[in-house]
Amino acid sequence: MTDAGASAEALLAQQARRESNARTYPRSLPLAIDRAEGAILEDVDGNEYVDCLAGAGTLALGHNHPAVVERMEDLLERDRAVHTLDLTTPIKERFVDRLLESLPDEFAETAKVQFCSPAGTDAVEAALKLVKTATDNRSMLAFQGAYHGMTHGALGLMGDTEPKEAIPGLMSDVHHLPYPHAYRCPFGLGGEDCWRTSAEYVERTLSNPDSGIVDPAGMILEPVQGEGGAVPAPDEWLREMRRVTRERDIPLIVDEIQTGLGRTGELYAVEHADVVPDVMTLSKAVGGGLPLSVVVYDESLDVWEPGVHAGTFRGNQLGMAAGAATIEYVLENDLEAHAAEMGDRLRGHLEETAATFEAVGDVRGRGLMLGMELVDPDGVPDSLGHYPADGDLASAVQAAAFDRGLVVETGGRRGSVVRFLPPLTISASRIDTVGEIVHESVREAVAADRDLTEAAA
């Protein structure tokens, strides 16, 4: 039994004894959370932290936003149904109304909505089944560096090989194409040459009868790779992928699970490029912090039979109530514009840090989905003059930031990217605090790394 007054240390030790070895965040963020409001977390010992993880981007409005709490309380006080499978309710219809209002007009006009079980990876699985059913094809096109979830089919799409190596029998016939990572270009090219070569490679591959790729059921991509290290795809490249897939009747699936609902400075990241996909996967922010995921797709793909895809928790009414409240608040308050402004402000701080420390190799991302890649200046640079990624240094920066009251995530190549996903409601003063903490955390981590190097010598 847990002591109600237990310390964070005691609770973390208990968690380690009782929970799976697969747990992740507590290993680098030793938090036992007691309270949360807006962009602030408070642990059971009374320590406060600025939350730049926000449920991996789920909490668009931050913790316990009044608009979301009020809507959920109203549902419970009125004895509304909490779980309805796929039976409809006024709450569900309101959510669908708000969701369609938020989508690009051209996409929404012919859109169908499929509710899935709770997680974003469930939406990806549903999207795979959708396009395979509609096209009667089986192979999928995905991209290097991609992350689409951890269930069986979604994991097969992942670009990072390490999480897949221990899992036997992953979905076969997935072809990983080069993503236009400007800083770590797969072709060793700089500037526009990187995305242009990537686009040409994709088109030539799909046009080559000897490529070994049978007719694809679909292409899935992230307009900004999240877990891959906050890597934005150039708008021109996204438009090329849309052209290439449309000309070949390949359904284009855009994974907006982390980018969707304002995070990148537009309501949806594809709007930066004016791209209309065939399928969009959504979760995280659209549930208002509660478990909810959907697939939105063009009606021409709606050929599957009744019951061919289901999920017990696709009728999560609390999630729909919280999601509708979140979408309404984002739309009414132009939070995508605020995210763009605060993202520019945070990027400015990070670029100042990069100018100060050689160990910061790159600052990238869009809106409030940013990343800062840590590198080893003593390593051998690549053909573009970029030093090797340094995951240990990124972890040291994360730890130093945590000690100063800031929660951030790491990701990207070898875990070398410190990632920032604060609530879209975050204030300018909080952004400045984040920038100051990051700067001092990099200073501390770099100094400690230098001391270790000198001691080893």
TrEMBL record:
GO terms for molecular function: pyridoxal phosphate binding; transaminase activity. InterPro entries: Aminotrans_3, Aminotrans_3_PPA_site, Dat, PyrdxlP-dep_Trfase, PyrdxlP-dep_Trfase_major, PyrdxlP-dep_Trfase_small. Its cofactor is pyridoxal 5'-phosphate. Transmembrane segments: none annotated. This is Diaminobutyrate aminotransferase apoenzyme. Keywords: Aminotransferase, Pyridoxal phosphate, Transferase. Belongs to the class-III pyridoxal-phosphate-dependent aminotransferase family. Coiled coil: none annotated. Pfam families: Aminotran_3. Signal peptide: none annotated. The lineage of its organism: Archaea, Methanobacteriati, Methanobacteriota, Stenosarchaea group, Halobacteria.
